[in-house]
Amino acid sequence: MDWVAAALAGDRRAIARLMTLVEEDGEAARAVTAQLFPHTGRAHVIGVTGAPGAGKSTLVNELARAYRSEGRRVGVVAVDASSPFSGGALLGDRIRMRDVADARDVFVRSMASRGHLGGLARTTPGVVRVLDAAGYDPIIVETVGAGQLEVEIAQLAHTVIVVDIPGAGDDIQSIKAGIVEIADIFVVNKADRDGADRTQAILEAMLEMGSPAARTHSRAVGMLMEACSVAESAASVSGAPWRPPVLKTIAVRGAGIPELVHAIASHREHLQSSGEDARRNRARLIAEVERELHHRLLRQLVAGLDHHCLNDVLNEVTAHRLDPASAAERLQHAAG
Hints:
By secondary structure, the chain is of the alpha/beta class.
């Protein structure tokens, strides 16, 4: 069976099969990716991140329902922490997306982070690409939910939603958390709780005070500084910078979801009209090439190491006779 052709035609079994190949990350995955790539780049990818307990899964479920009601085919990729025993995702799509998981026009995929930091799995971009090629738009990616380190979603998603909740602890936690700077849209979920207005006001005040997120949208600047020259970036920008809105939702009731869908559409329109969409896509692909190059070089280096040499160096490190940086340098030279 031609799995790629079948997936492009919308066959769900073929789509699932290609996702499994991509997650296995072997030669078959690279062949599949090469065939799918010319058919990608059409979907709008929405990232949903935030601390555990913020209600991300419920919010994603309601977003998928809203887009489905518009007659759109929706892809959902839910990244979970890995099981320490099986290495698989701790939660399944039937549990977390119960209202949409069985719908024909919604494809939900749970995948394990497998120890990868940043809130995503290493192969998450590849899984998103399968859905993109198969015609799903939008594609919603929910991160693990581990807190401030979940910034890798900014290099994958076109629109990043950062979910906060009232009464989660320190009132200024949202201001000092690095994750806030990647937000295109802020959502104060569980807004029926006490303190919702205060949480919203704090986020609004942060933007009014001229934070990096409000002045220049730091996530876009950070990506582009690595991939493009400052002159090129400045020349291709038009219009005023995007100011992230702060919305309130009660996801379990569907309250605030229409407003969130509208904000996502407004952000997508802004990206396209300002030219920022093309710049981010270029930066995103260059960053992916860099990550793939690092991964391949590391595997090549490890494969070229003598097993006894590796053990000797690691023994010296554990005995505190050799520091890790010097050990890495010695192993690099040993691999030739």
